[in-house]
C-alpha cells in the first residue's frame, strides 16, 4: 500500500503533493514501482495534528481519486475518519475505507461502511491525534490492542460489513510509546491469529528516530522502515503501508527468495 498524502502538515511528506497534478504523478509513480494499493489521505493524523472540516478534506482527496481511477485500475484506499468523506471518495472510485478510529468517529460510521460495501481498515488508536502521544499507557499492549480490534471487527460485521472485507491495523505510533510499538511488531502474530488480514504501517515513523537518534529527518528512516516491514511480514502481516514502495518491494523479493530456501 503506497502512501499519497494530499496534506500540508503530514509528518513525512506534508506539502510535497498538495496539488492534484503533483499528487497524481506521485501516485502513478508508486503504482509503477510496485504498489498494489494506493492510500489517499487529505487530513494529517500525525501527533499533535489539528482537525480539518469535511469540505476541505473532500476537496483534497476527491479530485485526486477521480484522476487516479481514470488512469489506474487498482484498489484505491481513502484514509479518513469522516463518513461523508468516505462516501464521496467511494463515489469517486475508492474501494477501501481506511479509518484510524476503527469506525468510532461518528455514530454513522458503521452504517456508512456497511452501506458502501467497500473494504474497511480498522485501526487502533489510543486517544486522538492531538493528544495521543501524551503519556500512552497499557497493562498489556498486545492483548489490549488485539482484543479491542477484534471487538471492532465484530461490531462492523454486526452492522453489515462483510467479514472478508475487514482488515485490522494495530496503529503503530498512534497512542503508543516505542516499547508498545516494538511489542506489537514482535508479537503481531497474536493479531494475525484473530483471523482477519492485518495491515502494518511503520514507514518513517518517529519510533525509528527514538531507536536511532541520528534519523531526525523522516527521509533518513528507510533502513528502520524496511527492518520493521520485514519483521511484520515474518509475523504474518498481509499488507504493508509504506512511503518507499520500490525499496520495500525489493526487500520483500529478497526476503521471499531466502524463505524459499528454508
Descriptive terms for the model:
single chain; about 260 residues; alpha/beta; TIM Barrel; six-stranded parallel β-sheet; two-stranded parallel sheet; 8 strands; about 45% helix
CATH class: Alpha Beta
Q: Looking at CATH, which topology would you report?
A: TIM Barrel
- How would the global form be characterised? globular
Q: Oligomer, anyone?
A: single chain
Radius of gyration: 17 Å
The CATH homologous superfamily: Dihydropteroate synthase-like
Structural class: alpha/beta
Number of domains: 1
Largest sheet: 6 strands, parallel
Can you describe this structure?
The structure is a single chain. The protein has helices at residues 20-33, 54-71, 83-92, 109-116, 141-159, 178-186, 188-192, 206-211, 222-234, 245-259, and strands at residues 2-5, 38-41, 76-79, 96-99, 119-123, 166-169, 199-200, 239-240. With 262 residues, the chain is an alpha/beta fold. The chain has a single domain, classed as TIM Barrel (Alpha-Beta Barrel). The strands form 2 sheets. A 6-stranded parallel β-sheet has the order 1-2-3-4-5-6, covered by helices on one side. A two-stranded parallel ribbon has the order 7-8. Strand 2, helix 2 and strand 3 (76-79) form a beta-alpha-beta unit. Helix 4 packs across helix 5 (141-159). The longest helix is centred in the middle third of the chain and has 19 residues, at 141-159.
Amino acid at each position: 500500500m503506497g502512501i499519497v498524502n494530499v496534506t500540508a502538515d503530514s509528518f513525512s511528506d506534508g506539502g510535497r503533493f498538495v496539488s492534484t497534478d503533483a499528487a497524481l504523478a506521485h501516485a502513478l509513480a508508486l503504482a509503477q514501482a510496485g504498489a498494489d494499493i494506493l492510500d489517499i489521505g487529505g487530513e494529517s493524523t500525525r501527533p499533535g495534528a489539528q482537525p480539518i472540516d469535511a469540505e476541505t478534506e473532500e476537496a483534497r482527496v476527491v479530485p485526486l481519486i477521480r484522476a487516479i481511477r481514470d488512469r489506474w485500475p487498482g484498489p484505491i484506499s481513502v484514509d479518513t475518519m469522516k463518513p461523508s468523506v468516505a462516501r464521496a471518495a467511494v463515489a469517486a472510485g475508492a474501494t477501501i475505507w481506511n479509518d484510524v478510529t476503527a469506525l468510532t468517529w461518528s455514530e454513522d460510521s458503521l452504517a456508512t461502511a456497511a452501506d458502501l460495501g467497500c473494504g474497511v481498515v480498522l485501526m487502533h488508536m489510543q486517544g486522538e491525534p492531538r493528544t495521543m502521544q501524551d503519556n500512552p499507557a497499557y497493562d498489556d499492549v498486545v492483548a489490549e490492542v488485539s482484543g479491542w480490534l477484534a471487538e471492532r471487527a465484530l461490531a462492523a460485521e454486526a452492522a453489515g460489513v462483510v467479514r472478508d472485507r475487514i482488515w485490522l491495523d494495530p496503529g503503530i505510533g498512534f497512542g503508543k510509546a516505542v516499547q508498545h510499538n516494538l511489542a506489537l511488531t514482535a508479537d503481531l502474530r497474536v493479531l494475525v491469529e484473530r483471523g482477519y488480514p492485518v495491515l502494518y504501517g511503520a514507514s518513517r515513523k518517529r519510533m525509528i528516530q527514538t531507536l536511532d537518534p541520528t534519523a531526525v529527518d523522516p527521509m533518513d528512516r528507510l533502513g528502520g522502515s524496511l527492518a520493521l516491514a520485514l519483521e511484520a511480514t515474518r509475523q504474518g502481516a498481509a499488507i504493508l503501508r509504506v512511503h518507499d514502495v520500490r525499496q520495500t518491494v525489493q526487500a520483500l523479493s529478497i526476503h521471499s527468495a531466502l524463505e524459499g530456501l528454508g
